[in-house]
DNA sequence: TATTGTTATACTCTATAACTATA
DNA sequence: TATAGTTATAGAGTATAACAATA
């Protein structure tokens, strides 16, 4: 009870965490979104593209689960990325209900070109924390996110 | 170099942090938004209402800065909350360009009634972390957010 | 001239529901 | 019957630009 934070209940702490989390992400996003926008992409498109870029081809629905949007919205996003020649649909031979989204050469080239800058910008933005602090936070955020998704 | 995380560069760590942050918040939001929706509010409206609830009346623009939306969008949000009788516009006598948003009795009553549940739900969602971990994370997120906003 | 807030407008994203095809 | 994805549709939220009132 001798300091402000210790006096808070678990509920208040969680609320505080949620608010602070929202603010922090909003602040980061504001900067990053301008950068992404300059590529002609929106945050969702970038998230999808980046996922395929780093994880390889994925069933469209699997992507939707990660990005947390409805399947019809995934169709919309994939359409847009396909029109921009950054990804391609590819049938799954084993299960013909499934369609993979796979990155094109142009998509790979784009991210190869942009990723270093993107990461550099993020480094600048996140420079408020030390390396150690980032590592701890990543670990904890993963725990938090995974738990939250299963509530 | 003896573990996966240690091998990452500062850039990659920051990228990872951003991704994990996004996922964690999305997961939490998904749960919270349903709850908020059941009040007939959207996340932005709730954020605005909550800010006035806890911080007292605020110039409309100040709110917009916190929530990070354009001033015309603030007009839209304030209109909606005012139609729902949860907040009220109030002129500023000293500077007649300024309009305060102030919470009504109905707004206060609503949040008084809902806040305990809201916090409880958040507690459940955030139960993946211990009290100590939450406190640390709040502190770090604040640092991160404040720094990011000034980049 | 700069700032606060509003109006008018257009557009992007997302969700819902109904559907097709495959399993 | 259940799952993956699409189509059609509608609506919500946000931004941009031009503006009015005030400082």
Automatic annotation (TrEMBL), chains A, B:
Any idea where the HTH marR-type domain is?
A: 14-146
Coiled-coil annotation reads none
Gene3D superfamilies hit by this protein: Winged helix-like DNA-binding domain superfamily/Winged helix DNA-binding domain
Q: Which InterPro entries does the UniProt record give?
A: HTH_MarR-typ, MarR/SlyA-like, WH-like_DNA-bd_sf, WH_DNA-bd_sf
UniProt-listed SMART domains: HTH_MARR (SM00347)
Keyword vocabulary terms for this entry: DNA-binding, Transcription, Transcription regulation
User: So which domain of life are we looking at?
Assistant: Bacteria
Pfam family name, one: MarR
Q: Which PANTHER family match?
A: HTH-TYPE TRANSCRIPTIONAL REGULATOR MHQR, TRANSCRIPTIONAL REGULATOR, MARR FAMILY
State the name under which the record lists this protein: MarR family transcriptional regulator
